[in-house]
């Protein structure tokens, strides 16, 4: 749309209009400059200034993604509550993910492992399933261009580490 009106106005000038060719040349040059020069230099400028991620900083994207992962965990637990998993296990996992939301998904302290070791193997399987649901939600965030791939890889590594920790506790 940029420049179409200017070009149409310049072309509408009668053939005998003084300096018509100069006006057409200037209009065409301005349109070319605004579309081509700015259009080609804008992506370079955005990368150079670090303005990727739809105008949000990486920290904001990470915070949004982590909250979305906690929400995915809670949704998963809601669907499993009616499928025979005990209320104590669901509540334990809810409190775990609530703690993550409160501390922006800061890793669990070592003393939390003692509590986790006391939970049944079903809880370990449920916890691992919750982490799988978070991983799926993370991929959806990337697919929908809400977060960048590099951030998703970082968060997926955190999920992988949590899953490895849970599996090592379950096997101990």
Number of domains: 2
Largest sheet, described in full? Answer: none
Number of helix segments? 7
Low-confidence stretches: 105-120
Describe the protein's topology.
Layout: H1 4-11, H2 20-49, H3 58-81, H4 87-102, H5 110-117, H6 121-143, H7 149-171
Helix pairs in contact: 1-2, 3-4, 3-6, 6-7
Task: Describe the overall structure.
The protein has 172 residues and is mainly α. It folds into 2 domains: 4-49, no CATH class; 58-171. 77% of the residues lie in helices and 0% in strands. It has 7 helices and no strands. Helix 1 (4-11) runs antiparallel to helix 2, helix 3 (58-81) runs antiparallel to helix 4 (87-102) and helix 3 packs across helix 6. Mean pLDDT is 75; it is low at 105-120.
Short précis:
With 172 residues, the protein is mainly alpha-helical. The protein is rod-shaped, with a radius of gyration of 28 Å. About 9% of the residues have low confidence.
Key structural traits:
mainly alpha; rod-shaped; 7 helices; 172 residues; 2 domains; 77% helix
